[in-house]
Amino acid sequence: MKVLVVGSGAREHALVRALAADPGVEQVLAAPGNPGMSGLADCIPLTNLTDGEAVVELARDQAVDLVVIGPEAPLVEGVADDLRAAGFATFGPSARAAQLEGSKAFAKRIMAEAGVPTAMSHVCTTVEEVAEAIDAFGAPFVVKDDGLAAGKGVVVTDDRDAALAHAAACLERPDGRIVVEEFLDGPEVSLFCISDGENVIPLAPAQDFKRIGEGDTGPNTGGMGAYSPLDWAPVGLVEEVVERVAKPTIRQMALLGMPFAGVLYVGLALTARGPRVIEFNARFGDPETQVVLARLATPLSTLLYAAATGHLDRLPPLTWRPDAAVTVVLAADGYPVTPRTGDPITGADEPGDLGERAAYVLHAGTKRDGDGLVSAGGRVLCTVGLGSDLQAARAAAYSRIAQIDLPGGHFRRDIALAAAHGDIHVPG
């Protein structure tokens, strides 16, 4: 099987790495890819990931058997529709189905229709409406940009003025809308549910760290680290989420004539009232994908191709490695506000082989400058550590990141720390 992965981040690097190790895959192509993928895949230039015609032409030229779309923007813009219309098996939902991520207001509507447990919310189109909504809910204030914002469209704060300022900035955009929600207390969980539009197969849950600072302080980012498994999670959590959240959502989408085929990312808060959905995404999450795929033993191409072709019901149960996995993100100086690019990176290059290693590097925002490697984004790279438990996986990830030098680079030192110490508690 020839597989084309669309995207250039660490999530796509993790996908490429898993596919390259898959005995059923003869060739992996990445468009545009990144320097870290070049040892595993043929990287092909692609300047605009939302240009459906260009992606179709690339898939046709390379005669690929499966296209996997990594980022959310091409999905929302309908690239998966263009590929399917051209006859390509495509992993990723249609533009209509991707509204589950493209519009938080739409996702709330679907959740209400499907009876999915989630936070109470108000959709607002003016700052005055936002002010009324946040006063009704009280602090902490949760204010979300309705559209795509690369993981940075949400503000959770006790500062009323900061909440209103964020809302005002989002509403300045054409057709700007704000979703104001009640605050959900409790640990967060990310669960990827693979669907072919009818059937649902969950992957292992993970937990990510969205805030820039240790102790979950500072502004939201695209994600500063993640780990899996979640030994502290309630027994039966995955099954409950599949039955109460994923399956009702998939059924409702099919009922509305927009079947969801791809990965439904369910972001949850485990509250005293039970699991509540914080958000839906229409693609694999970053950085959770890095740890979930590190533990998946089932060949990835088999799973993604079955979802793309409507045959998930034919798959045997997934198998998982016993290892724990931890990923730590190295961010550029100034991230997430004004990240600096062009800084030299040393110590990140690794061989392209797929042998067993306790830790490895995935590239996110890097590029080649002559023979050297430089930063080219806010989240520059991440290390993935594997071990018999979270303590060992943390040690591997942090030992590897300590070998990398990026001027002004920074990372959180508390990824998976509380879980490794058994200090995470679910209310109730």
Automatic annotation (TrEMBL):
The keyword Nucleotide-binding applies. SUPFAM superfamilies: Glutathione synthetase ATP-binding domain-like (SSF56059), PreATP-grasp domain (SSF52440), Rudiment single hybrid motif (SSF51246). The lineage of its organism: Bacteria, Bacillati, Actinomycetota, Actinomycetes, Micrococcales. It catalyses: 5-phospho-beta-D-ribosylamine + glycine + ATP = N(1)-(5-phospho-beta-D-ribosyl)glycinamide + ADP + phosphate + H(+). SMART domains: GARS_A, GARS_C. This is Phosphoribosylamine--glycine ligase. InterPro entries: ATP-grasp, ATP_grasp_subdomain_1, PreATP-grasp_dom_sf, PRibGlycinamid_synth_ATP-grasp, PRibGlycinamide_synth, PRibGlycinamide_synth_C-dom, PRibGlycinamide_synth_C_sf, PRibGlycinamide_synth_CS. Belongs to the GARS family. Gene3D superfamilies: 3.40.50.20, ATP-grasp fold, A domain, ATP-grasp fold, B domain, Phosphoribosylglycinamide synthetase, C-terminal domain. Residues 108-309 form the ATP-grasp domain. It comes from the Bacteria. GO terms for molecular function: ligase activity. Its EC number is 6.3.4.13. Keywords: ATP-binding, Ligase, Nucleotide-binding, Purine biosynthesis. Its cofactor is Mg(2+); Mn(2+). The keyword Nucleotide-binding applies. Pathway: Purine metabolism; IMP biosynthesis via de novo pathway; N(1)-(5-phospho-D-ribosyl)glycinamide from 5-phospho-alpha-D-ribose 1-diphosphate: step 2/2.
